[in-house]
Structure formats: C-alpha cells, structure tokens
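Minutes, project check-in
Item: structure for the 146-residue chain
Input as provided by the requester:
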Amino acid sequence: MEIWLPYLAFYKVLVEWFLGIELPHWTMVGKNFYLGHGQALVVNGCTVIGENCFFRHSTTLGNIRREDGSYSGSPVIGNNVELGSNVCIIGEVRIGNNVRIGAGSVVVKDIPDNCIAVGNPARGIKQLKPTNLEQQMEPELLVQAN
C-alpha cells in the first residue's frame, strides 16, 4: 500500500466532505494563503493563486464550459488579494496584485492591480495606493512593538 493513500483518504473525508473545501492538491498556491471561515470553498485545480491571499467562505474559482463542450482557462489570482464571502470568479480571468473584491461579487473580466472591485458583474470602484509588502511590518512584530 502506498504511504500517501491514508493521507488522501483523510483529506477527502475531513476537508472535502465535512468542511466542503475543494482545493485540489495540484493547485498552485503561493505562500501565506489564508482561508477565513474555512467552509464552502471551490477552486478549479488549474487556478493559480498568488502569495499573501485571503479568501473568505463560500468562494468559487472555476472555468466555463462552452457550448461546444470545451472549457475556458481558469482564474489567475495575483499577490496580496482579498476576496469577500460569496465571491465567484469564473473563466480565464486575471486578478491583479493588491486587489480587494467585495462580498457577493461575480468576476467575469480582468481586474487591474491596486483596485477595489464590487458588484455583479464586478467593476473597479476605487484605485488603491501600491503597497510593497517587504516594507510592511510582519503581524508578529506589530504585536511585540505595542
């Protein structure tokens, strides 16, 4: 018996069935990924997720099945992206770096860097100042500094 088989079974039962999180093991996910309220997450395995991303519950990232039976590409999420609850990002969509997407938004078109987007369909409502994560203090250091 392969050594990984018990881990796969554990993952399928606990994570996918009980928590309702579908995040295939081959999905490319950057460091510091955080899932707030870990329930009802569906991510297509071909999706790419950048670093320092924060996804809330009931989020879907997937592709589109076309009329001819073929499928579109999957979303590519940049670095430092925050998704509100119940966000759907569908199709070959590119989400830029330093982006915030409001709760309940449906994203079917690219979102540029440094933007807040909301709505159905999602549209940019505010530009943000670019951030350099290397210049920001780590959360552990902020607690120690106080």
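Outcome recorded: Residues 134-146 have pLDDT under 50 and may be disordered.
No further action items on this chain.
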